[in-house]
Amino acid sequence: MGLTPLTTYTITITSNNGVSDQDMSNELGRQVSINVTTSSPPSSPQPLALQSSPTGQPTVLTWSEPQYPYGVILRYNILVSEFNDSDTATVRGSVNGTTLRYDLSQINLLSSHYFIWVQAVTMHGESDLSLPIQYFMVMSSSTVTSARASSSIVTTLSTTTSSGTCPSVVTIPYTTTVISTVSQVCSSTAAVCSTNDVVQSYSELQTTSSVLLSILGVFLLLSIVLHIVTVTLYCYMRNRKIKESYKPVPAVLSMKECAATDIDEESK
């Protein structure tokens, strides 16, 4: 297994000539205490969570200290990467080693979907990255809400009470039952969750849907008008062609009229 870094071990050295027993009365004189100073970086911070800030938005990132710090934690680095580029994580913020929370509103994040990690740092090096947490955000005119405009609304909630914790990610069907769904999910964990973000996100998605439906209605109306004009023009041209092909022949004598004319000429 090897030696644990920064741990004191006692090593006892004895000799044996194979004839007589070792005199153990002077045992302390044969002991040497050494301080193992093998350097090793700390283990990674414990699983991350998101909590609501005083404004009600789930932007406060929290974590627990490493299980094996192997020294004094000097600082924690906050690393961020976009969802489609999870292999490239960059340090976007840091806090001192005694702080176990970070307000993500301090980072200038664009409207997107992110992965976030935390890394512990000591004088012996940097720890491995913690397990990532997914962070969804949509910028509005006054606040930042956690949502994703797709077939469902995804909101990050982690308001903790003494009786439980809300799930870190709640997926809600894109229906009008969004609020009741959140209540059911939160009550199942015996915790109190804020639904302000969900309400605002759902309203934004409703507005977007209304605009799309209006545009679709305009295109549908234009296609109907174009169809009516096309059919009317076709019928007009067809009727005109039929009338021209059936014009009456001017002043043609019938057989009866011709016969009467011949009789009159013979009598003369």
Automatic annotation (TrEMBL):
Fibronectin type-III domain ranges (all copies): 41-141
Bilayer-spanning residue ranges: 211-237
PROSITE patterns: FN3 (PS50853)
Gene Ontology molecular function: ATP binding; transmembrane-ephrin receptor activity
Gene3D superfamilies xrefs: Immunoglobulins
Localisation: Membrane
InterPro entries registered for this protein in UniProt: Ephrin_rcpt_TKs, FN3_dom, FN3_sf, Ig-like_fold
Coiled coil stretches, renumbered: none
Main location as per UniProt: membrane
Membrane topology: Single-pass membrane protein
Renumbered residue ranges of the record's region Disordered: 36-56
Keywords: ATP-binding, Membrane, Nucleotide-binding, Receptor, Transmembrane, Transmembrane helix
Gene Ontology CC terms, in alphabetical order: plasma membrane
Protein name: Fibronectin type-III domain-containing protein
